[in-house]
Amino acid sequence: MSNDFKIVVFASGRGGNFDNLAKAQIQNKYVITKLIVDRDCLAVQKAKKRNIDCVLLDRKSSSFNQDIMSAVDDDTNLIVLAGYLSILDEAFCEKWKGKIINIHPSLLPKYGGEGMYGLNVHKAVMANKEKYSGCSVHYVDTGVDTGKVIASEKVKVDYTKDALYLSQCVYEKESTLLIKAINMIKSKHNG
Fold first, then answer.
1. Are 175 and 21 in contact (CB under 8 A)?
2. Strand pairing partners for 10?
3. In the chain, where does DSSP find H-type helix?
4. How confident is the model at residue 189 (pLDDT cuts 50, 70, 90)?
5. Which of 11, 158, 170, 190 is the most buried (most CB within 10 A)?
6. Contact 156, 132 (CB under 8 A)
7. Which of 149, 152, 132, 131 shows the shortest CA–CA distance to 141?
């Protein structure tokens, strides 16, 4: 077990990407050691179902940033933000620099930053009549969605449908893109 590529996943919602990552662990030779959530959410139930340790941190607590810092084990190889909505503080980002990635539902650098999550992104894409949307996996830095993009996947926008439909099309690409990015990082780590 000591040679495993250890991943901690952070989530705030339904846990779909977390669950897809958990299903792919054996095939892709990594292990999710822990799920960290900042609110009670469906991801917690998915972690319990898969016997993955889960830590629920109170995002409104004055010790929230310190609690996150101590919740991640020092032997963690990668932190994956999969639908995680809280902003990580600068000290945490610096400690784990180059070891935190995020999946974002747009082709970054477009439609990133504060307030750009969920349907907000897809509505903005459609309001601006973009031909393509998609998803991006990027390294996390001290900005919001400003880190170096590792990989992205395009989705053609269908204007006969709504933003919810676009979000579903983008979501379908997210888990495979996330696994691809993890494998790219893992190969550098093992190389």
1. yes
2. 36, 81
3. 16-23, 25-28, 42-49, 64-71, 90-95, 119-127, 163-190
4. confident
5. 11
6. yes
7. 149
Query: Is residue 102 helix, strand or coil?
Result: strand
Joined together, the tokens standing for residue 113 give 């930053």
Q: List b or e across 161-180, with b for residues whose CB sees 16 or more CB atoms inside 10 angstroms.
A: eebeebbebbbebbbebbbe
Q: pLDDT tens digit string along 114-159?
A: 999 999 999 999 999 999 999 999 999 999 999 999 999 999 999 9
Q: Which two tokens stand for residue 4?
A: 């495993």
Check: pTM over 0.85? Answer yes or no: yes
Q: Which residue has the tokens 């990552």?
A: 21
Asked if 105 contacts 121 with a C-beta cutoff of 8 angstroms, the reply is yes
Closest CA relative to residue 169, chosen from 103, 82, 126, 105:
105
What's the topology of domain 5-190?
Answer: Rossmann fold (3.40.50)
- What is each CA distance from 165 to 7, 112, 168, 185, in whole angstroms? 31, 20, 5, 31
- Nearest Cα neighbor of 179 from 36, 37, 5 is 5
Q: Is 43 helix (H, G, I), strand (E, B) or coil?
A: helix
- Cβ-contact 98, 139 below 8 angstroms: yes
